[in-house]
Design goal:
Oligomer: heterodimer
Strand content of chain B: over 45%
Distance between the termini of chain B: 41 Å
Number of helices of chain A: 0
Number of strands of chain A: 11
Largest sheet of chain B: 6 strands, mixed
Order of helices and strands of chain A: EEEEEEEEEEE
Number of helices of chain B: 0
Helix content of chain B: under 10%
Radius of gyration of chain A: 14 Å
Chain lengths: 116, 113
């Protein structure tokens, strides 16, 4: 299994440009997440999905959009890039069958984005 | 709201030294606690976890005990190796439908030979 994969690894955007960060997992996980990691800070949740066709906002959703048309893929869209979106973006997935416990989240290698 | 406070880094140790990285938390209810590790150029990996008070999580020689009375989950290892050089994140989950993890800021550990 490849686990969680992310593309691209690094990207430079100009202010106002748009792009999509790709995320895919091959573990048949139902839950998927997007986090951003700013320098010297912990990770903050942007959006999450509990299954295909279902997405919801996390802590810092402004400026981003997501979709989940398949179990495997969870792309993150930036419509009008701003310097404040310079960060490292991590996608994660987990498998949840029921109950209230937190299952292990598996992370991708990250996408480093620089907005100038 | 929930929060996690980690020891400020960076931490630099010599090989075979004893490691402690402090982590304290604020949360409602009875959270689950985690340590994640991020090796250079990679994503985060779960290192260990504990789901209730007095539980001890352990993996790869690392240990952490869930101390509810002091709201702490300190990470320890008796003898570090160069390969342990990484960023370590303490995190908590306190319930809810989004399964959101609250992370600390991370502690960079460098182990010199």
């Amino acid at each position: 299994n490849a686990g969680v994969t992310q593309t691209p690894k690094f990207r430079i955007l100009k202010i106002g440009q748009s792009m999509t960060l790709q995320c895919a997992q091959d573990m048949n996980h139902n839950y998927m997440y997007w986090y951003r990691q700013d320098p010297g800070m912990g990770l903050k949740l942007i959006y999450y999905s509990v299954g295909a066709g279902i997405t919801d906002k996390g802590e810092v959703p402004n400026g981003y959009n997501v979709s989940r048309s398949t179990t495997e893929d969870f792309p993150l869209r930036l419509e009008l890039a701003a310097p404040s979106q310079t960060s490292v973006y991590f996608c994660a997935s987990s498998y949840k069958t029921g109950g209230t416990s937190m299952e292990t989240q598996y992370f991708g290698p990250g996408t480093r984005l620089l907005v100038l | 709201g929930n929060s996690v406070t980690q020891m400020e880094g960076p931490v630099t140790l010599s090989e075979e030294a004893f490691l402690t990285i402090n982590c304290t938390y604020t949360a409602t209810g009875y959270p689950s606690l985690f340590w994640y590790v991020q090796y250079p150029g990679e994503g985060l990996q779960l290192l260990l976890k504990a789901t209730k008070a007095d539980d001890k999580g352990s993996n790869k020689g690392f240990e952490a005990t869930y101390r509810k009375e002091t709201t702490s989950f300190h990470l320890e290892k008796g003898s570090v190796q160069v390969s342990d050089s990484a960023v370590y994140f303490c995190a908590l989950y306190s319930g809810g439908s989004n399964y959101k993890l609250t992370f600390g800021k991370g502690t960079l550990l460098t182990v010199n030979p």
